[in-house]
Amino acid sequence: MEFKSQYITPDIKLSNYDGKLFKTEVMFEQHILVWFISGETKIVQNDATYTFGTGDIFLIPRNQLATIINYPKDGQPHKTVAMHLTKERLKNYYTRHKAVGKPSPGQKLRKFSKHPLLESCLASLIPYFDLSEGLPENIADIKIEEAISVLRAIDKDMDSLLANFEEPGKIDLTDFMERNFKFNMTMEKFCYLTGRSLSTFRRDFKKIYKKNPQAWLMERRLELAHYELSEKHGKPSEIYYEVGFENLSHFSYAFKKYFGYSPSELVNR
After folding, report:
1. Is the pLDDT of residue 2 over 70?
2. Partner of 38 for a Cys bridge, out of 9, 42, 76, 147, CB 3.0 to 4.6 A?
């Protein structure tokens, strides 16, 4: 079964999923505030893995690469309320409210487990999903501004994230690729996040690694998979998606072609 998403505005949705497991690779283009009603999610980023369940609330910063794995738990579907805090809306907000501190890029995911102020703010949205005509725009504006105000009240460093409107600049390519090679993103998104055009990205990459990006990504992911299986005793069925493969059969085929033996043969040694 696929996800069912019900929008009451373009920036507020209720997601419901009761299949076995749903995995996707994403780059968040807007900040997203998420409240977990039921189920569980694992978010794998370049330097950390997070697991969220019933009652958890977290904020995912924009321009972040991540592997998202959603699944039901304890007989309950995977169900969340998500609110997008768009750059345009935040710019409008900060023309009327003075930001505290300096904007800071590259921030990590923030967790607010079962915080009563945020929980009541997001729970108040639930009745609106029963409206056949959707939520009036002026009320949606009020609810999103309420969420922003609550975030600022409970996290004094929040403005350094929400009031940062800079786009990614040209950054060190080697450092970025070593931290993000696991994410199965398009070349265009890798280019954007490193502050390069496609042609500049390919040129810089070839100069550093002496091969094209696709070949390097495949080799790097397979080498990580080999380490996870041989040194950390992982299972092929559990690690293939965490190292950047879409399905187990493709992973097994690529692994055997590269190393000369299958993942299961390595595990059974």
Report:
1. no
2. 76
